[in-house]
Each structure stands twice: as C-alpha cells, then as structure tokens.
C-alpha cells in the first residue's frame, strides 16, 4: 500500500491524496482534496510509504544527445547541455536522469526550492518517502502512440517513456499538432472514467479506454524519480543511515591513508584531477572562445557563452511560447480562451474576462517570464472585457 500525495501548485501547500495498492488498484484513483493544515492528520491516519507527485507545470522534461562512450564526467555535467533552454541559473535547479543506458538521455528539471520543501515536509511529518515523481507519470503508458488522461486542472499527454506535457483542454488540438511534429501519431488512447467525456478533435481520432482497466503510469512503466543526487535518501531512517555511512567511510579512509605514503597519494590525486580537467576541457572546447586554454575557469566561460547565445537568439519556438503562456495563465483560471492562432512569428490568444485587471495581470505575468508580449484589439465593457494577447516568437519549435 502507498499513500499518494499530489500537490496542486509550486507552493506545495494544498493537495489531494489517495491510498493506492500497486498490486490490485488501477488508474481510476480515488482522490481526496485537502488543505495544507490537514497534511499532518492525513499522514498519521495513513501510515504507508509515500509517493509525492509534483505538478507537471513545475517540471521541465528534456533530452540530451551524448557522444558515444560518454563517461561519468559527461553525465555529471549534463545540466550544462540544457542550460540554454532553461534561461535560469542551473545552481538553483535540480536535475534527475532517466535511463542512462539510452541515448539521448532524458532529464527532468525542477527547482531546488520545490525539492527542499518535499524533503522538509517528509521530515516534519515523518513521511516514509519512497518516490518523488512528476505528475505526467500518473498517465497510463503502453509504450506506443499518444496516451491522454486527466491530471489536476489540465490534460496530461504522454508520448514517450519520459516525454510528455500538461496543457489546458482548450489548447489540446494545438498541442497535439505540435506533438505530431516530433512523432508520427498513429493512435491516441484516451484513458477516462465512466462519466468523463472525451474531447472532440477534428484532426485526430481517439481510442477510449476505461481507467479501471489499466494501472497508472508510475506502476510497471518507465519513470524518472526526482529523488536523485542530493535528494536520493529521503526518510528520517535513511538520513540516519547516511550519517553513519559517512562516518564509516571516513574511518576507513583514515585507516587507508595511514597505510600509504601521503605524498604518493596526493600525487595520484593531482594526476586524476588533471585528467578530469582535461576531459572537461575537451568536452567543452567547441563551445568556448578559440583562445581558451585548459587552465581557464571553464564553468564561467561556458555560462557567459550561453548568455551570449541567448541574447542573440531572439526567436522562441511555438512550444516554448505555449509553455510560458500556460505557466502564466495557471494563476488566472477565470480567463477564457476563445481562439488560438499561430502564424509566422506570432502566437495569439483571443481572451475574455469579467475583470480587465486580470487581463492586464496576465500580460504582466507573461512579460516577467521574458516573453515579448502585448495586447491588441482591447474591448472594455462594464461586465466583460476582451482582447488579443500576442506573443512574439520564432517560426516553430
């Protein structure tokens, strides 16, 4: 038995929860809504191992193509491969890897503040935390086509072991067209409850399957557990074991050093460090200025180079613009979208709201995400305001 706790936004406060038996239960999970103050009671009344589900809008999924025979040094620096896609300091982000035997390697990126809060909640409430997973992996997955299921306040689209997204139902046709540019959509399987209607899609046909006939995507299917690296051990018992582990390793290291000549050990360490630096230099050299030598501060130079590329690359693809808009609009669910258009370098949304201030606030939220946005055809009435929100971007993702 597992206790599922899915938080509804990046504050990790209010949540929904359910008890789940991986051996017998199916994807029609019986969720219960709760507020932040009820977490202690839910945890004490359901003392099972816990799976925390992070909202999909808080997790960025990407893939990185690695050179053949990539070593541990390449994997340990893999975050630099997606830094230009994040437009954020990678030190503030946590990177979790999918199956490292595959190429390209799949990556899930989430803010460290979110992971820190997960760990803090687990410690405060004595949760036996076994997994922290993105919301996408609630969607059932058979390993082919496109799978679609309802998430919390949105639709989950999964089209690969570690590939997928979450979108508003009104944006579903546009997002499926975008997915179609990456893979050939030979089937779309809609997992739904008995009373849940299937969306009407002109360009695609849905194959409906009941949720109670299949297991959710985090059971017997590939997933990325965000508990990696600094967050690998989560429960208080694991934390205690980790402390004793480091003490034992320290004592063993001291005994080992006492049996060898310190000077020889230091020389070996310097040679190993020099080898690692040389490997890093060879890996990063194509992205650095021509006059850079191996003794330079490679990390700083690479970050500067990424920033220069970002500054010169003004175009944003359709997917990125849609992602930024979805993130901004999540705070204003009462704003309605009547039409989505994408032509040339413009992604436009015809929006309506009873409050003009919400439209203006949405515009400011989009701008704060670094998107070139403006309002057109603004029509203000006492009981309803409408307009067109235009996002300037590239010629497609």
Helix/strand layout:
Layout: E1 2-7, E2 15-20, E3 32-34, H1 39-45, E4 50-54, E5 59-64, H2 72-76, H3 83-86, E6 93-97, E7 105-111, H4 112-124, E8 129-134, E9 146-151, E10 154-158, E11 164-167, H5 172-180, E12 188-192, E13 206-210, H6 236-258, H7 262-284, H8 298-312, H9 318-329, E14 336-343, E15 346-353, H10 356-368, E16 372-380, E17 385-392
Parallel strand pairs: 1-4, 4-8, 9-12, 12-13
Antiparallel strand pairs: 1-2, 2-3, 5-7, 6-7, 9-10, 10-11, 14-15, 15-17, 16-17
Fold and architecture overview:
With 397 residues, this protein is α+β, with helices and mostly antiparallel strands. 31% of the residues lie in helices and 26% in strands. It is built from ten helices and 17 strands. It has helices spanning 39-45, 72-76, 83-86, 112-124, 172-180, 236-258, 262-284, 298-312, 318-329, 356-368, and strands at residues 2-7, 15-20, 32-34, 50-54, 59-64, 93-97, 105-111, 129-134, 146-151, 154-158, 164-167, 188-192, 206-210, 336-343, 346-353, 372-380, 385-392. β14 and β15 form a beta hairpin. The two termini are 42 Å apart.
How many strands appear in the DSSP assignment? 17
Specify the biggest β-sheet.
Answer: 5 strands, mixed
Give the DSSP E fraction (strand runs of 2 or more residues): 25-35%
The helix-and-strand class reads alpha+beta
Low-pLDDT runs:
234-238, 311-316
The radius of gyration is: 24 Å
Shape: globular
Rounded mean pLDDT score: 85
Helix content: 25-40%
Distance between the termini: 42 Å
Q: Treating each run of at least 4 consecutive H or I residues as one helix, how many helices?
A: 10
Strand order of the largest sheet: 3-2-1-4-8
> Secondary-structure element sequence?
EEEHEEHHEEHEEEEHEEHHHHEEHEE
